């Protein structure tokens, strides 16, 4: 009778809550179904049916994202057990039910899924036997929407004992759904329709031909610019300081830059691969750098603007173990540091339009 009363009470609370959602903004109700099975309920395995389908209702209050409290009423199935009494084996077959109350601890792992755990107490009834036992549960909830959650859980009711059977434990695995009260979506207010303002006809103003624009007056503007250039080329054959025709062609843009901007200065550094001795490579790198400088001077570049050096096989840009890598290391690097120069630019100001 007590269990039936508890189910009726919980159902009444749920029904009343549905009628007063605004007063239960943090309350939820739900139901679940699953499978229950017993431990330590059968003295002998024969003539024992200690598992069954199960169902239940629950109602909870969520104080914040982490903490709540939950009341549950579960029917744990029709369980057939056997036990020893006065030296003889007895059999019992009754409905098992439980009323539980426990704080609920939640941990959101992302915006859609929460893990939860409950530890509390339960009043259990089996036929005429009853007991208050500890209970605990773990599970996960998935937020289907703002109002609906789905959950899966495992709950254990520990050590029911009525003086006849001793230490019966009940396990419940279930899935369920819960509905949040007071979480109604905001109503969309209709947009008020207004009559458009009457359109007034506007008489066009007479068009006046614009006066001819004045002739532009050239003005002189001084501009400061910066320029930087770095040129890397593989320009030499093996053991040679003579520029190839391709190398001479590659330096034409550099020559044009140095001739156009007299303020520019260039640093010319020669390099070799690792073939040969270090002293020989050092001398060869200087000869290669000087060969480039001589070619620039032949084409009109001021020699005072050039700095020439050679570093031999230092600072390779590729491996010296391959033919292609050695070819890349036989190079001359020319660096033109940033410089400033001034040029006169003639600009024409835009004519001022005549008034209309």
How would you describe this structure to a colleague?
By secondary structure, the chain is α+β, with helices and mostly antiparallel strands. Helices cover 17% and strands 46% of the residues. It has 2 domains: 2-8 and 24-180, Porin (Beta Barrel), CATH 2.40.160; 219-346, 60s Ribosomal Protein L30, Chain: A, CATH 3.30.1330.60. It is built from 5 helices and 12 strands. A hairpin with a 7-residue loop joins strand 7 (148-160) and strand 8. The longest helix is centred in the C-terminal third of the chain and has 21 residues, at 278-298.
Spatial order of the strands forming the largest sheet: 1-2-3-4-5-6-7-8
The main β sheet shows up as:
8 strands, antiparallel, barrel
Q: Please name the CATH topology of the largest domain.
A: Porin
Q: What is the total number of structural domains?
A: 2
Described by its quaternary structure, the protein is single chain
Mass-distribution shape: elongated
Pfam family, one: OmpA
Family: Belongs to the outer membrane OOP (TC 1.B.6) superfamily. OmpA family.
Region (Disordered): 194-215
Membrane topology: Multi-pass membrane protein
Fill in the keyword field for this structure.
356 residues, alpha+beta, Porin, 60s Ribosomal Protein L30, Chain: A, 8-stranded antiparallel β-barrel, 4-stranded mixed β-sheet, 12 strands, elongated, OmpA-like_sf, OmpA family protein, transmembrane beta strand, membrane, ion transport
Q: What's the short story on this structure?
A:
Residues 1-25 form the signal peptide. The chain has 356 residues and is an alpha+beta fold. It contains five helices and twelve strands.
């Amino acid at each position: 009778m007590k269990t039936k009363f508890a189910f009726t009470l919980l159902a009444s609370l749920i029904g009343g809550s549905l009628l007063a959602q605004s007063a239960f903004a943090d309350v939820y109700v739900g139901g679940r179904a699953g499978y229950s099975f017993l431990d330590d309920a059968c003295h002998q395995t024969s003539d024992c049916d200690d598992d069954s389908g199960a169902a239940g209702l629950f109602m909870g209050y969520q104080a914040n994202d982490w903490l709540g409290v939950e009341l549950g009423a579960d029917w744990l199935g029709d369980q057939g057990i056997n036990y020893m009494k006065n030296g003889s084996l007895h059999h019992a077959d009754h409905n098992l039910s439980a009323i539980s109350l426990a704080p609920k601890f939640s941990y959101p792992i992302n915006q859609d899924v929460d893990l939860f755990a409950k530890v509390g107490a339960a009043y259990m009834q089996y036929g005429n036997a009853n007991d208050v036992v500890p209970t605990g549960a773990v599970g996960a909830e998935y937020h289907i929407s703002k109002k609906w959650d789905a959950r899966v859980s495992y709950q254990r009711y520990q050590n029911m004992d009525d003086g006849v059977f001793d230490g019966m434990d009940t396990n419940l695995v279930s899935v369920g759904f819960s509905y949040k009260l007071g979480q109604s979506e905001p109503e969309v207010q209709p947009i008020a329709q207004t009559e458009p303002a009457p359109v007034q006809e506007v008489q066009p103003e007479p068009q006046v031909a614009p006066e001819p624009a004045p002739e532009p007056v050239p003005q002189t503007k001084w501009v400061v610019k910066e320029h930087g250039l770095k040129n890397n080329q593989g320009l030499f054959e093996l053991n040679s300081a003579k520029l190839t025709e391709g190398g001479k062609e590659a330096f034409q843009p550099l020559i044009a830059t140095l001739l156009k901007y007299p303020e520019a200065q260039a640093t010319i550094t020669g390099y070799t691969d690792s073939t040969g001795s270090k002293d020989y490579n050092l001398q060869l790198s200087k000869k290669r750098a000087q060969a480039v400088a001589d070619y620039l001077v032949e084409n009109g570049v001021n020699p005072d603007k050039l700095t020439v050096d050679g570093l031999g096989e230092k600072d390779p840009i590729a491996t010296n173990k391959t033919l292609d890598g050695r070819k890349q290391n036989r190079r001359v690097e020319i660096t033109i540091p940033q410089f400033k120069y001034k040029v006169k630019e003639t600009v024409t100001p835009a004519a001022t339009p005549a008034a209309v």
